[in-house]
Amino acid sequence: MSIKVMIVDDSPFSRMMIGEALSEGGYEVVGEADSIDSLIETYNSCKPDIVTMDIAMPGADGFECSRELRINDPKAKIILCSSMKDEESETEAKRIGVSGYIQKPIDAENLIKIIKNIMSPDSLFEQLMARGLETFNEALAQSFIRMTKTPVTFKPIGNSDAPYISQGITTVIGIIGQSTGTMIMDLSAETADKIAEAILRRPAKNQGELLAMVSEFANIIAGIGCSMLNKKEKAFALRVSPPSLFHGNTAEIISPSVKIQKSLAETNFGSVFLGVGFKKGTMLWM
Amino acid sequence: MDVNLINPILVAFADVLPQIGFQKIEKKNISLVGSTFKYDGVLINLAVVGSLKGVILIGMNIDSAKRFASKMMMGMEVTDFDSLAQSAVSEMGNMVCANACTQFSKIGIDGMDISPPTLMIGQGGQATLPVAQTIVINFLVDNIDVKIYVGLV
Q: Which of A133, A196, A276, B5 is the most buried (most CB within 10 A)?
């Protein structure tokens, strides 16, 4: 059964363009509305799976229409289509709970990709889980080789749920995007000392310098890893938080709401633990 | 100290805690520490990305964490800070910080998002946050000491 789409746009030209993109993608356009007047009635009679929504319309704008639609049917799946895509509009869209946001002029391929992802939200998450750790390992290897000119090999470690015990210095970086997640890097102070010496070509002057090196290293891995993933799938829209560091003892590290995939990078200076985990998200942005 | 950074978090804490079984929420004091500070027990790390970036940490000693989890689970006995108790307090961290994002947006600081919580459990450890100064808010919640560390810029 084909997926049913309703188009809300005041411009007949836009409705035609979006309609054609949808038909090409094999979707059925079951209804159209040009303003808030016929919106709810059309929605309730054609029962679409997805609604594309223009933002700038005379009278009630796309945000107001989306709000009305979500009151009428809290499960309504809305894709905002607008030439505007600034932080303010995105925040408003998130607040209303729209499922996706695409910029005009609409690229048919992107629109179809968003609809596919909305209709099977798990597929995007599964892609992220399948590629996540491998990509971050690659980011670690790339940066490590570039910075120290020495090799890295990865040792698989069991993905048991047993808590991981820090070797001495732990960096935690939050990842925000279509799915949210966490990257954890952990190494012993001894390994950190040796890596710092290789990068700086002299021992670290003090603990502050050592910690700054570790946090910057983790920051680079997270940044490169997320850019690589975003390049493969724009809808991941991953961004990283600044790093938090925990050190000076052997703490347990636990992420109760996320399954962390783990690997151990073996280097000439000692081993570096890398853990990456994601949680399912609901938003799709292009 | 930027009051704008503190108030939304105070409001969020006072808003969420009664919903999860706490009655008396007292703010004891607020202080400033540098980027590095000591901790003992449990730290819940929630990273923040958006117009303000950084991290919010919620800290308790192990005994307080067990009592806190017990309260959240309607008085169920918590002898070990086990996975259920860990999940309970991290869920509290998640709720407080998500609520704080909403409070921030009410004062025009929009588009903030949080990562899933990570727990650090240990004695005599140190945390170094990506900010020059960390704001520490000490709370007494039904006689349990809870610290909130705010490292946002």
A: A276
